[in-house]
Amino acid sequence: QVPLVESGGGLVQAGGSLKLSCAASIRSFHSYGMGWFRQSPGKEREFVARVSYDGVSTNYADSVKGRFTIFRDNAKNTVYLQMNSLKTEDTAVYYCAAGVVLPSYKAEYWGQGTQVTVSS
To answer: Could you tell me how far CA 93 lies from the centroid of its own chain?
Structure first.
């Protein structure tokens, strides 16, 4: 069973919005810090956002602050990434991760990714 499954990616015009979801089948989901990362062609995977196990604390990459919001629903074992004011440079494969630790950005589980393409 795949521990994390992302959905919600797609093609959107610059300035538009998308909401990514990550459904988790790991035990004790409510005890894991969850995060989103992304990787563009030819670039290394980079941190996007993280939410604490209880949803109280969040962290964002400078490049997405004020545009993206990470939040979770522990009753549904799901974490979300609301992306607004999308830019072409946001184009990437977005990965969900569980057990994200800062500042190392290491994680215990990874999803398979969902493609987000922002057109100009």
So the answer is: 10
**Tokens 């999308």 -> residue:** 86
Return the CA Rg of the chain: 13
Q: How far is the C-alpha of 60 from the C-alpha of 43, rounded, in Å? A: 19
DSSP assignment of 33-96 equals -EEEEEE-TTS--EEEEEE-TTS--EEE-TTTTTTEEEEEETTTTEEEEEE-S--GGG-EEEEE
Are 42 and 92 spatial neighbours (Cβ–Cβ below 8 Å)?
no
The β-bridge partners of 22 are: 6, 79
Nearest alpha carbon to residue 110 among 43, 53, 34: 34
Contact 22, 99 (CB under 8 A): no
d(C-alpha 118, C-alpha 87), whole Å: 6
Q: Averaged over 113-119, what is the pLDDT?
A: 98
20-41 confidence digits (pLDDT tens): 999 999 889 999 999 999 999 9
